[in-house]
Amino acid sequence: MFPAGPGIMFSVIPTIVTIGFIVVFALFIVFAFKGLTQWNKNNHSPVLTVVTKIVAKRTNVSHHSHHNAGNMGMRHSSSSTSYYVTFEFESGDRLELHVPYDEFGYLIEGDMGRLTFQGTRYKGFQRDI
Questions:
Q1: pLDDT tens digits along 46-66
Q2: Is the dihedral of CA 29, 33, 34, 36 positive or negative?
Q3: Positions of E strands within the chain
Q4: Those residues with Cβ within 8 angstroms of residue 119's Cβ, 6 or more apart along the chain or in another chain
Q5: CA dist., res. 104 & res. 85, Å (int)
């Protein structure tokens, strides 16, 4: 049985807070390591240019809401959009890449051309005429 009174506040709660902090810190380290690993893998991958067809496009919108206590409790909202294009190689294999917003509108499903990429990095697409 748990002890009665404020004793539980000084024994269990600090332990829970400490465990929560350790978990958040560990997740931060894991995601940082994964990001650095992918960055390093991309840097060591060859830059390839291959014939592809654009088969799909999609966007991912992330919404963020922030509470600003210094501004009379006002809430601030923002959003960001990521753009992705799926390319299909002559072999039938597909690859989805994150593309810059200023090129996304020029890429049209069904277009054939030459995709240049390095690992998971989109480098460009030259449409065949």
A1: 999 999 999 999 999 998 887
A2: positive
A3: 47-68, 74-89, 94-99, 112-118, 121-127
A4: 38, 41, 42, 43, 45
A5: 8
